[in-house]
Structure formats: structure tokens, C-alpha cells
Write a structure and sequence with these properties.
mainly alpha, 7 helices, BMERB domain-containing protein, bMERB_dom
Length: 218
Amino acid sequence: MRSQELKEAMAQFGRQYGVDTTTSGSQTSVNATPTRKVVSQWEKDVDDVEGTTLEQQRIQERLGDVTAQANAIQAKIRETEQSSSEEQTLLETYMNLTNEKNHLVGRQEYYNIIENIREASRHIADLNEQLDNMTKSTPDDYFKTPEEKDRTDALMESYMSAIQKKDDLIQKLFATEEQLLEDEHRLKSLTLERASNFVRGSEEPLTASRRIITWLRG
């Protein structure tokens, strides 16, 4: 295999997953591609290290506050007369807090995946640079020894694996966002009566996901 053949193979594999295989110094984004002009929010978040770090800190702090408030209200509900106006008010507040907690935990998962995508993108860029440097050093027949061929094969295998891993993470990100919307819909469909029975420990709401039940008890 010649250097040009390797570059074409890398480019073809990269295009399959929407990855830019160029190593130009003008490329500043780990997700930049020469043919795409529309940048999605998750791609912006991958590039915005400082902003996502601050947002994660804000989420963690707010999650602590919401959890403490929800636990306090849950304790009050158990001491309140069932079906009373006071219980209804407390339940509405409790369900709003639970919705917010659900959203915050979902955002935590989102940013954790964003960080993994960021690391995968850096790994891809590093492997791409190593392969590019190898082909530049000997532009024609660059396999001088069996050891060099083995090293190139190993780098190419790592490169393809890294791209596939990044693609898997992106799909996981989309699935997480869909799950969050589904959980929010389930919580909104939960009636006050069933919420009361659940908080008091006499019933588990059938419409709530297993993940939400865990958070409600957390």
C-alpha cells in the first residue's frame, strides 16, 4: 500500500462517520468538517470546555437543593391527611421538584457523554496526525520494514476503532435525550392520587419508569 492509498482509505472511512481526516493547522474544532456548515448544539458543547464545566457545577449544586427540598416535602406529605387540600398542594410541589430532578439528572448524563465524545475526538485527531506524519515522511512506498507495516496497521485499526467508538457515543447521546423526554411525559401523566399512594409507599406508579422510581426514592 502506498501513502496515497492509505490517505484515501482514511478519508473514505472518516466520511462514513462524518469525521474530517485533515490535519491542517487551521482546524480548531475537534468536530469540524469541510463540507458541513450547520453545527448542532452537542458539537458546540464538545468545543466549549469551560462553558460545559460551569454548567455541570451549576447542575450539581441545583440537584442537591432540589433533592433536599423533595425529601422534606415527601416527609410532610406522609404526615398530612390524605386527599386534603394541603396534601394536594404539597404533591404538586413535589411533582414539580421531581420533574426538575429528572431533568437535571438527564443533563448530567448528557454532559458526561459530551466529555467522552470530546476525549474520543482528541484521540481520533492524535491517531490521524500520527498516520499523516507517517505517510508524509515517505510519500511513496512507506513500508520499509515489516515492523513499520505492523505499526501502520495497528494505528489504522486504532483509528477505525476510535471513530466507531465516537459514533456509538453520539448515538448514546441521542438516546439519552429521547429517554429524558419520555420520562418527563410519564411524570406529567402521573395523577395526584397515584403520586400520593406512591409517596406514602402503598403503590408504585405503573406509568413511571424504573429510573424515575429510583430517583424519587433517592
